[in-house]
Structure formats: C-alpha cells, structure tokens
C-alpha cells in the first residue's frame, strides 16, 4: 500500500519535470513515410533509449529534435516550450566522434563555449575541471589523431556536455568501437551519469547496451518507424557490469528481443 | 625492414637521375653530339658557377616578380574562393570564366601585357598572377567543399554562425588542398616571370636567357635553366615548410 502511494507521488513528481517531449512526429522522405506518428518524452535526469532495427529512422528522429531536419508534422517541446525545428537547444553526439582534427583535445571540448562567444582562455578554464571526470587528463594538448577510439568518444561526449548540460542526444556513440572498449565505455558512461545527472536520449540497436544503460526504452519498428512498446527498466542503480548476466536482465532482454523481431 | 624500404624508395629516383646525367655526359664527351649543340652536364655546372656573379641581379629581379605575383595571386584567389564558396551566384558566374582564362595561351598574352603595361615589372607580375591563381582557386574551392557534412550539421546544431563555421571548420579543413594548389602555383610562378621577361625588360633570368640565346651561348642557356629549376624547387620546399608550420596536427600523425 505504502509502496503504491510512494510510486504515485514519485510519478506525479516526474510528470512535472518532463525535459523533452515529442508529439506525433511524422516524416516522409521522397514520398515514403519513414516516421509514422511517434510520441515520446524524456524526464529530467532520466536515461531513455530508442531501440530499433538499423535504418528505421532513429537518426532522423534525432535530427528532428536537434532542429537540423525540418519536420513534416508534429511538435517538439523542451521544458514545455515549443522548439520544433529550432537548433541549439539540445546537444548532439554521433557515432563518428567528429572532433576537429586541427584542434587540440582541450580546444575541441571547449568548442561549444567558443561558438557561444567566449574567449579561448576562459573556455579552456571552464573545460579543465571536467577533463579528469571524462578520463582525458594528461591528453589536453594532444591532437585527436593521437588518441584511442574510446578516448576520442569521451572527448566528443565532453564536448556534447559542454554545449548543453540539460539534454544530451547520443546517436550510437559507441557503435564504432570494438566490443571490449565498448563495454568499458558503457560502464564508464554509467559512472559519469551518476555524477553529472544529465537527461539523456540514447539511440542504439544493441539490446544489451540499451537495457544496461537505460531507465526506459522505446522499442521502434522497422521502417516506417512506429513505437511498438515502452519498457520500464527497473534494474537498481548504480549498476555493475555483472548485472548483464543476472536473470532479471536477461528476462528484459528476451522480452525486447522477441518484440524487435 | 621498413627502414631499408624507405632508403630504397629514396635511392631509386636519385640513382636514376645520376644515370641519365652520366649517359648525357658520355654522349657529349664521346663526340656523338657536338658541344655547341648540347653542352655536357659538367659544362653546365661549371658555366653556372662562373656566371653566378653576373646573374645574381637577374635572379633577384625574377624572384621579386615571381614572389610579388604569387602573393597577389594568393590574396586574390583566397578572396575569390571564399566568395565563390559562400555565394552560389558568384560561383556560377565565375567558374566558366576561370576555366576560359586558363585556355588562353600565355605566350599570346605576354606580349599584349607588354603593350598595355610597358616594359617594367607590372606585365611580368601580371603573367605570374594569371598562371598562379587558377591552381590556388581550384584547390581551395575543392578544400572548402570537402568538410564532412555531419561536422557541418554538428556546428549548426551548436548554433555556430557562418563566419564561425568558416574559420573553425571549413578553412582548416581546406588547408591540405590549399597547400597542394599553392605548391603547384609556386613552381609556376618562376616560369611565369621568365615568360614575362622574354617579351622584354631590363633584367631578369628571362632577359638574360634571351640575350645568351641570341649569342648562341647554349651552355649559358642551360645554366639559366638549371638556375630556374633550383629556384622553383626552393620555392616548392619553402611552401612545404610553411605547410608543416601551418598544420601542426599533420605533423603529429607521423
């Protein structure tokens, strides 16, 4: 009884703090519908994943939220305000690290601040405290070429975070890494999230990754993308790597797997 | 193993050039071709050293014209490329004109320049500009268009304005091909100046070459060719050095 009450209060509170809301997104590409009436939301400090088969239009959804791709139908709300088609309200990270090869790590991560008009010295000073948290200390003055793949992704993530500490869109950020580095990066990401508590919208087609990281998962269908199911992941936090072999974890995984295929 | 390969890669072209020069020397020495028709490599080198004091002033003049022309060409082409990259109208309007400008034989234009601008430095500089600016514009344009589309989107999503996108991303991304064009232009610049000087003037390697050719001093003609080659190579190396300094991130890869 008490549990139910607590849950109700909890849910109530969460409903108030919706960071991002997408309503009835519809998109066509060359006459073919690629996104078919998708609605979802992201709460404050929540980690939500959109999972779906490759090429189902997940990245298009992100481009719509980031305001890069004009939307056919639907609305995007951020903090309750209608920001449909507007750029600069969320930060965005792709599978490619997209670091500028001609800038040192510290300047790459400070890029969003420099674009906002801050002086290089100031921007560098603001980034410095985060370099350690993102595992980049000692590499501040290296060029991206001199870093490992995992390190480059961490630098890209820090840059993303420096742009907007609010809503972070991650589009398969670890998709280009080898399996071992990938697993390390996931665990590392969980630790960082515990500390900086961003609101994350994540894209992947890796079920294990999605379940391991997320609070909630939206399962998308193949093209045209539709939301098949919303799955609440009630695994406790902080999560250890071992959780991926637990019975509960595998039950969720199995459920999503059956739903995806 | 790798070291041996790099030594081999460097040694092959050097050895080949030495071989060609050796054959040339042997042919002239054995009398197959008369000395006044084709001087031997050794003749060319000794003459080159002997005339060095008298041609320094010519070298200086030619270098001055070439460098002035090259600098103006760089300024013009950077401005032009930026305009063409930013405004499609400008690009559409100028592109055919640019190509046409390269189809006009420079040997025809050079005397015209002399008629219009006299025997001073200006017509030579004009020739240099004309031959230099095309490779720079074309390579820079290509470089400016080469920026990763996703990177462009990322900059846009961070609300970067046009100018920021240009100097933070587009321009540095284009530097590689910009310098490739610049290296070609640098080697053209000396030749351009020499061609301009053929049409008349007081000093310059081209003027000197015309004089010695008219007196049938073929060894001196070859010596001036040697000087032109060395100057062009030096200028090429200079650009390479500037590129190394301007693009430290490329050094870091090695």
Provide an overview of this structure.
The complex is a heterodimer of chains A (261) and B (254). Chain A folds into 2 domains: 17-90 and 166-261, Rossmann fold; 98-163, no CATH class. In chain A, 39% of the residues lie in helices and 24% in strands. Chain A is built from 9 helices and 10 strands. In chain A, the strands form 2 sheets. In chain A, strands 6-7-8-3-9-10 form a 6-stranded mixed sheet, with helices on both faces. In chain A, α8 crosses α9. The longest helix of chain A is centred in the C-terminal third of the chain and has 18 residues, at 179-196. Chain B is an all-alpha fold. Chain B has 2 domains: 1-33; 40-253, MetI-like (MetI-like fold, Orthogonal Bundle), CATH 1.10.3720. Helices cover 85% and strands 0% of the residues of chain B. Chain B has helices spanning 2-29, 41-86, 88-103, 106-117, 122-144, 149-157, 162-198, 205-214, 218-246, 248-253. Chain B is globular, with a radius of gyration of 22 Å. The interface between A and B is medium-sized, with 26 and 22 residues.
């Amino acid at each position: 009884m008490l549990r139910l009450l607590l849950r109700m209060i909890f849910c109530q509170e969460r409903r108030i703090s919706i960071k991002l809301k997408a309503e009835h997104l519809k998109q066509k590409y060359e006459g073919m519908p690629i996104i078919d009436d998708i609605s979802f939301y992201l709460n404050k400090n929540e980690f939500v994943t959109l999972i779906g088969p490759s090429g189902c239009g997940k990245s298009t959804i992100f481009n719509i939220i980031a305001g890069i791709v004009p939307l056919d139908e639907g609305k995007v709300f951020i903090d309750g305000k209608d920001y449909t088609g507007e750029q600069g309200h969320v930060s965005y990270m792709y599978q490619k690290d997209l670091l500028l090869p001609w800038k040192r790590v510290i300047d790459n991560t400070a890029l969003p601040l420099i674009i906002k008009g801050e002086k290089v010295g100031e921007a560098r000073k603001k980034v410095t405290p985060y370099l350690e948290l993102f595992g980049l200390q000692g590499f501040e003055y290296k060029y991206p070429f001199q870093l490992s793949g995992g390190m480059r992704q961490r630098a890209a993530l820090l840059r993303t975070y420096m742009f907007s500490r609010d809503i972070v869109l991650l589009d398969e950020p670890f998709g280009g890494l080898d399996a071992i580095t990938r697993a390390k990066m996931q665990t590392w990401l969980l630790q960082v999230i515990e500390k900086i508590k961003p609101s994350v919208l994540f894209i992947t087609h890796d079920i294990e990754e999605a379940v391991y990281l997320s609070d909630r998962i939206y399962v998308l269908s193949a093209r045209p993308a539709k939301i098949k199911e919303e799955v609440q992941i009630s695994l406790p936090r902080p999560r250890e790597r071992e959780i991926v072999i637990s019975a509960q974890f595998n039950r969720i995984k199995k459920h999503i797997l059956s739903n995806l295929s | 193993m790798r070291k041996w390969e790099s030594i081999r890669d460097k040694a092959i072209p050097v050895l080949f050039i030495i071989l060609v020069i050796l054959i040339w020397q042997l042919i002239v020495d054995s009398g197959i071709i008369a000395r006044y028709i084709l001087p031997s490599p050794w003749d060319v080198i000794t003459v080159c050293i002997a005339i060095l004091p008298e041609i320094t002033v010519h070298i200086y003049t030619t270098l001055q014209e070439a460098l002035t022309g090259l600098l103006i060409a760089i300024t013009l082409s950077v401005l032009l490329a930026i305009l063409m990259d930013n405004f499609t109208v400008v690009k559409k309007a100028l592109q055919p004109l640019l190509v046409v400008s390269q189809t006009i034989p420079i040997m025809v234009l050079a005397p015209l320049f002399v008629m219009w601008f006299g025997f001073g430095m200006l017509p030579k500089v004009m020739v240099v500009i004309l031959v230099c600016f095309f490779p720079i514009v074309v390579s820079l344009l290509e470089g400016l268009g080469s920026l990763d589309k996703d990177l462009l989107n990322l900059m846009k999503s961070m609300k970067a304005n046009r100018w920021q996108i240009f100097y933070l991303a587009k321009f540095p991304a284009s530097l590689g091909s910009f310098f490739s064009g610049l290296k070609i232009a640098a080697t053209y610049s000396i030749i351009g100046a020499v061609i301009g000087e053929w049409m008349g003037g007081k000093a310059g390697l081209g003027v000197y070459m015309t004089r010695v050719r008219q007196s049938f001093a073929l060894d001196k003609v070859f010596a001036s060719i040697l000087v032109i080659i060395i100057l062009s190579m030096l200028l090429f190396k200079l650009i390479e050095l500037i590129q190394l300094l301007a693009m430290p991130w490329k050094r870091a890869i090695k």
